[in-house]
Amino acid sequence: MRSLFLLTLTFALAIAGGPPARSGSAGLTIEKLVQIKHPSEPVWSPDGQRIAFLWDLGGVSNLYVAGTAAREPKPVALTSFSGGQVGAPFWSSDSKTIYFARNGDLWSVDASGGAPRAVWTTPAPETDIVLSPDGSRVAFVRPSRPGHELVVRMLAGGAETSLIHDDGGIGGLAWSPDGSHIVYAAGSRIIFHDEAPEYSGAKIIYRTTERIPGELFVVSSSGGKPAPLKTLGGFEGVRWAGNSHLVYDRQSGDYKRRAILITDLTGAARPLHEDVEEQFWSMPGNAGGAGQPSPDGKWIAFLSDRDGWDHLYVVPAAGGEAVQLTRGRFEAWRPRWSHDSRKIAFDANEPDHPGDRHLGIVDLSGGPAHAAVTYLTSGRGTDTTPVWSPDDSKLIYQHTDPQNSADLFVIDARQGARPLRLTDSMPAGIHHDALVEPEYVHFPGADGQPVPGWLFVPKNLDRGKKHAAIVWIHGDGINQNYDGWHVQRNYAVYYSFHQYLLQEGYVVFAPDYRGSIGYGRAWRNGVYMDVGGKDAKDAWMAGNFLKTLPYVDPDRIGVWGLSYGGFFTLIAVTDQPTLFRAAVDVAGVVDYAMYYTDPYHGGWTVSRIGTPEQNPRVYAQASPISHVDRLARPLLILHGTADVNVPYLESVRLIDELLKQGKSDLVTFMMYPGEFHYFTRTHVLRDAWRRVDDFFGANLHPEQVK
User: Fold this and answer.
1) Which DSSP state fits 428?
2) Domain spanning 2-32+436-700: which CATH class is it, in words?
3) Nearest 5°: CA angle at 638, between 633 and 639?
4) pLDDT tens per residue across span 625-659
5) Are 65 and 41 in contact (CB under 8 A)?
6) How far apart are CA 386 and CA 377, in angstroms?
7) Domain locations in the chain?
8) Considering only CA atoms, which of 27, 24, 21 is closest in space to residue 426?
9) Residue range 266-277, pLDDT digits in tens
10) H/E run at residue 386
11) Do residues 288 and 303 lie in contact, with contact meaning Cβ atoms separated by under 8 Å?
12) Model's pTM, two decimal places?
């Protein structure tokens, strides 16, 4: 214990001598940054008059309600919990009560206000709480040693019926539209793999998880024997198509085949559509590309990149040819059927404007062959994730832009309508007009291809002088930067911090290296059998681009990134040891052979670069830890101990190797106990941003540092 404390203290002291944390000149401070909230999970009341939603602040979510008319007051907080998560909200059928999950129980609160109360409290934590279509019952999963049970409970009176028990896991519950049946997955298992590598020591055990999928079943909601569905090779995204059929997706282990299938309740499945990829299926998971049946069960909407771009298609549930509904050099995502099955809302970027997204509607009233596409929103920023009102007259959606982080807006579902803002997630005192807008530019990449990126130049910068600059490398690989705040909370916190750095006098540049979304399949798949190659070079060549700007000091450029961006940061400082003056690695992969052995990530890795035995050259270039002897400039490493995306063990191994190579004088490390991959909690964000601020300030010396 004492040795671990001393090691941590040694690393902490390495940054203690840096300059003190500084306040932004336009009112944007680190303390204000961590107070920016993020809304999610908006749910319409059945009468269409109000919206319930969750508002997250520093990893603590609470329930709010907002009216959808212009005369309505600001959102009202219905809960004020100081810790934990509120989740999965839904309304009572009379629009008077909102239910939500908390700490493994179901809670409720009056929509007009009052104290929230537990609908039930049990020792065992219930999960997957799902409301029946008529609003009278909920289905949920309850632990039951051994295994779990599927339970249906009446909201009025609390009478329960245990439908099934399984020795393994149960999940993925979905009611049939008439409430007569429930589909679920059962028999799944988690196998834990523990290791205690020599470089960490036998006292600390690191755990990874291997997930064994279950099978699909259907059971009557009133009880009876469950019926297995023969999916013949796996399933994803199970949805009801009417009351007698189910639609699900299946993806091959090598990511080259993706199929949409339909099955009746006897388990007789047939394919509706298949995509075959020469390289790998690279559409991002949050695009909502899975098969989505229309409410009347006649059509299945889905996304495909068969023409090189992610577009919206429909196929008859009875079988037949798929019809393409959107076309062009843009990516259409997150389709959502209207309740009357006549329209599909979606969001899409504009051609040649990958960072701006707007809401569109496909009208299928005249049939798919005569579908009409109209757009409801325009201008700078992103409009995403539309949700129809109960009468299909309005949509609620999320909006971000260069002056505003994520907020909820509502708009009439007709062309020319004006949106109504429902939330304001920024804390008081932030000067929106002082925030810096990004400029969309291109620079030559690894093989001469133009690489897109977003340049941020501080307002009123004296361009006659040389200034420090920072390259930000986004994570996930399959992600992107936007024209303003990022649409995901995980990356929006970094955009917020960049606005702070801009106020400190830094120029900031964010490249969308090959592999990034928003630019079509060819750019996304440019990493195939080359991870850590041209994609990583695209990222670090952003430093060369900054050197061409007359107002950037070529000797004072920093680089940092999260996850995949941390991986590229490590490649940058080992491939090009003197290109960057200082670097920050946030939870980056240090070696893809190590990442491949984690059962949770093996398939993702194989789809892109095969196995280490098949492609040793690619794995060698995707191993920055093999070259840390080249490190020549200061490196700050940040990692959470509860990280499952990039296990904390990766940074432990990195630090061990850096010490062996005699690089301890260049390395600063901070671990965050219990923190996940994407830093969430307020105290973690506050500490991380102050450390990064001090680290770049000490090493890049912007003019504002005194």
Assistant:
1) T
2) alpha beta
3) 140
4) 999 999 999 999 999 999 999 999 999 999 999 99
5) no
6) 11
7) 2-32+436-700
8) 27
9) 888 899 999 999
10) strand 382-388
11) yes
12) 0.93
